[in-house]
Structure formats: structure tokens, C-alpha cells
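Question (not urgent): is this output format expected?
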Amino acid sequence: MLPRQEPDPPAVVRVQANAAALVAALCPRALGSIVDPLIPKSIVAALRWVFGRTLELEEVEAALLGSRFGADELGMLDGFDMDARCELVRAAMVVSLADQRRDPARTAGVRALAEQLGVSATDEGLEQLSLLTAGKLGQLRWRMLDHSVNTLWGERSDSKRELWWQLVGTVFTSSSAERAVASRFVGLGLLPPSTVGWALHRHYRVHGLAVPGEGRGVSDKFVAHELAHVLTDYPPHPYGEMLLAAFHAGNTPALAIELLLRALLQYHHGIRLDDAPTRGLLVPDDLFRAYARGHATRVDLHHADWNALLERDLDEVRRELGLSA
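Got this back:
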């Protein structure tokens, strides 16, 4: 199930570079003589949704056999501003993992692209990619967690502690304060059906999720994630979670590579990061469209004041955020 029909989001950036240069830059190293169809499909989707360029799949497939990133192609990208260069590195990372290979040569290629383009804003994400291709999955999980917490909450130790405990399965449901939180969330079901709060309550109930403070509910500090499901219409099943991660990547640039990496590993490579992993869910056009949709949203949903939204009309909020149908 994808979100309700809505206008397509605009491309993340608009560039005038030669399409062949973009294909060459996005082409993974160590491609081999047999190319998985997801590689050219990912390049086509990245060109469309990130760079606003349309290229037929057959053209990309034909170009891949001879495409290698070099000085000549790099010169064609000189007109890119830093935002466009960062997007190129992020898209190249996705393409490098599209066929479920985790090859150090490909990671080296993405790093070389970032270095040649003078991009440093993606350094943390590329460090995480290096841990992946080195097989250091334990270190990768904790580095992702630590970076996410520091990016979203800074040095707020209460949030950090709760997120760490959430990762290892602890729930926060013992105190009277938490019971009061549960009562408040249950009460959202009494709001008018047109409101954000009513839709959030229905989301919890329809999908069998405990509200914060209930039996296996998590802290209300993580309501923003469930609210994002409501606002975007991405359901809380593996494919919807994958698209929501891509949406958040476009919506929160500081976490872009990390969230794209999480989406690919958890739901395409079958590597457990938090929930039970799933393999083979990548549909490149859907993933990059969700990324562009997140970029076009006017507020970073990680930092939205969800308390202020609960009694407001859902459609009105979606319109304000740029998520309307």
C-alpha cells in the first residue's frame, strides 16, 4: 500500500550536467560483466527524483558497461553547488548497495567521489558505510544509534538513555506518570475523526500498537515516528517502514545517508538493525520518490511539535506541510 494519490514532489535539485556524466558518477565500482537490473533502475530513479533528469532504462543499461568515473566526467560536474554534490554522493551510495552486494571497492568508489567533489557533509554516513562493508555490524548499529540520538536530541541524556534501552527491548510502562500518558493517548480517540489526534489513535489501534505508557508501548518521546506514518500514509509494515526511512532521509539531511543505509540494510539486505529484517524489498522508483517527498516537506518532522498538531484538522496540516493530496 502506497500513499494516497497526490502530485509528484519536485526534484531535490535541478542540474544541467550531461546525463552521461551523472550515470558515470553513479555507476558502482566492481560492477562486473553481469549487471543486476536494480542497478540501472536505481540510477534512472535517482536521475528522475533527485536531479530532475529523465533517461530511459535502456539508455542507462547500455551506458553502464562502459561507464567509469574519471577526470573528464568530473569536469562536467563543476557547475554543481554543494547541495547537488551531496545529493550525488548520497544517490551513489544507494546505487552501490542496490544489488545487495557489500563490496569494499564500491565503498572506496563512493568515498573517492565525495573527495573529488569536495564533499565533507556526508562523512559520518560514509564512515557507517565503511563499517558495513568491513563486516563490523555491531559497531555499525551502535554508531548509527549514537549519531541519531546526538543529531536529534543533542546531549539530552534522558532521551539518549531511553533510546538505548528501547534498542535492547526495554519498555517504559511502570510508573503512575506513564499510566497518565497512556490515558491521554487513549483519550485521543474521543477527538473528532477529522483531527490529527484521532488519526494517530486509530493508527495505534488498527495496527495493533500499544500507545505510550501501555503494556508494550514505548516512550512518548518517539511519537514523532508514528505521527510521520499518519501524515505520510506509509503504513507500519516493512515496505512502509522502508519508504518512511527514505522520506526521513530527504526530510533530515544531517541523517540522510544513515537513514537511507538503514532502509536498505533492514529491508533489502536482510540485516537486523532493530526490527525483524526483510530481504529484497527495494523498488528504486518508490524509494527515491519518498526521498524527494521528504525533501519537499516544509518542516523536519523529527522536530515538529506534535502536541500542537493533535487537535488540528489532518488535511489542513498535510497541506501546510506540503503533504496534501
